[in-house]
Amino acid sequence: MLLAACLALPSGIIQGYAGFGGALFAAPLFALLLGPVTGFSILVILMLFSQAPLYPEALRKADWKEVAPLAVSSAVTMPLGVSFFVAADPTFIRRGMGVLILLITIVMMFGYRYAGKRRILVGIATGAAAGAISGFFGVPAFPLSVIYLHNSGHSPGAIRANVLAAICCILTVYLIMLGLNGIYNVSLLIQAAILTPVFTVGVYLGQYLFRIAPADWFKNITYAILICTALIMMAT
């Protein structure tokens, strides 16, 4: 748990500072330390509750015409993968996580943004892909949803509300599905209760650092860590 706490703090800092990457950073390391299923199940709780104060306002301000296709399609494809995720060979899951994290990181590094028309089918396809990736391999695929939502033409505040609303919905569905599969027990919940305050402190610390430190070098360091972590996962 001490090692897990040492990972939760920088993961929270990355999440709070860059607004992305915290879950991607923590997921593979938690998988190596605690096992893929236990590690990601704890991470779902950390992500959901550390940003809980932000969700009510985001849910009120979100443009549900944009968010609903993502959230609903994710809710459909995610359960299909959860049963596989909890029963598959951990080594296979870890290597799959490494491949997917590497691909998602490369997409983020090149700053890709969806520039096509705002069609419902595109939103559905994006949400379905994100839900499937998260469901089958326990990889937080939120950047895929962010890539789509960031080109909506809304103000930055509205885009942030849409992103937070989508993440809230996806995490809630994942929490429910893991619970229905019997993953959450007293021991795991105690571990999550210990790590959540650590991760939350990291989020607020990251938000503070964002106001005083340059963003570019921090993002580059985050990308480098994610790539190294992905390669380690693939080789383990």
Tell me the layout of helices and strands.
Blueprint: H1 2-18, H2 22-34, H3 36-50, H4 55-61, H5 64-87, H6 90-109, H7 120-137, H8 142-149, H9 156-180, H10 186-212, H11 215-235
Helix pairs in contact: 1-2, 1-10, 2-3, 2-6, 2-11, 3-9, 3-10, 4-9, 5-7, 5-9, 6-11, 7-8, 8-9
State the gist of this model.
With 236 residues, the chain is an all-alpha fold.
Q: Can you give the helix content as a percent range?
A: over 70%
How far apart are the first and last residues' alpha carbons, in Å?
21 Å
Mean pLDDT across every amino acid position: 81
Question: How would you spell out the order of helices and strands?
Answer: HHHHHHHHHHH
Radius of gyration from the alpha-carbon trace, in angstroms: 16 Å
Tally of separate helices: 11
What would the principal axes of the Cα set say about the shape? globular
Unreliable stretches: none
Write structural notes for this entry:
The protein is globular. It has helices at residues 2-18, 22-34, 36-50, 55-61, 64-87, 90-109, 120-137, 142-149, 156-180, 186-212, 215-235. The chain has 11 helices and no strands. The mean pLDDT is 81. It is mostly helical.
